Amino acid sequence: MKRLTILLMLIPAFSFAQVEITLNHNQPPELGYELPNHDTTIVIGASVELASGLYIYGGSGSYSSLWSEGTSLSDSTIYNPIATPTDTTTYQLTITDSNGCSLTIDYTVNTRDPFESADQIDDTNEKNLQIYPNPNRGAFTLTGNGFEGEKLHVIFYNSSGNEIYRCRLSTINTEFSEVFDMNLAPGSYFMKATSENHEIHIKFIVN
Fold first, then answer.
1. What own/partner pairs with CB < 8 Å and gap ≥ 24 does 24-27 have?
2. Helical H runs in 59-137?
């Protein structure tokens, strides 16, 4: 609390008087915040709550909030919206109190491919394993060669890294093709094919 003293001098005709007026003024504490982390990482296609654990203090009255990059948020006017970015995105939160004082907070959501940290990936894909057409509408053909006599384990994942289908193919001939017809929602998907000596990952798009 601050005390402000004002002296008024009254000057009527031929006399002087002094009046002391004391005003008490409450100044709110500075607007501030606490946030455990300013970034997080998710796989492509997943969602995350922004600014978990955010605590706002100080200022005056109630607070209003507004996030930038609101198109990928469930609600851009609340503290902790759900974000579903397709690429690494830095969001900015502006907090404003009832006196118009404000602060800004940056929060970054990093995105990654679900398989980018796989231990074994045959980048050369020497077996010429392919999915076509790609993009497709959930119906496609898997082709390859050089797997003669091998068993091929095939697993399909959605963009969040969740398994959606698996099968085992016995490749008798040098070249083979297998037709798949899946009821898949539009988005990005991944296939992992594993044989005795190889692990191959292929990304495909469903329109």
1. 25/1, 26/1, 26/2, 27/1, 27/2
2. none
**Amino acid occupying residue 29:** P
Among residues 139, 131, 73, 62, which one has the least CA distance to residue 99? 62
Q: How far apart are CA 113 and CA 196, in angstroms?
A: 25
Q: What letter does residue 172 receive in the DSSP assignment?
A: -
Q: What is the pLDDT of residues 134-179, one digit of tens each?
A: 999 999 999 888 777 778 889 998 877 788 999 988 765 677 889 9
Q: What does the alpha-carbon distance between residue 145 and residue 148 come to, in Å, rounded to a whole number?
A: 8
Instruction: Give pLDDT tens digits for 1-27.
Output: 455 555 555 555 555 555 565 555 567
Cβ atoms of 159 and 189 closer than 8 Å:
yes
- Calculate the CA 110 to chain-centre distance: 6
Cross-strand pairs, 169: 152
- Cα–Cα distance list, 2 to 20, 46, 99, 142 (Å): 16, 51, 18, 77
Please state, in angstroms and rounded to a whole number, the distance separating the CA atoms of residues 155 and 149: 19
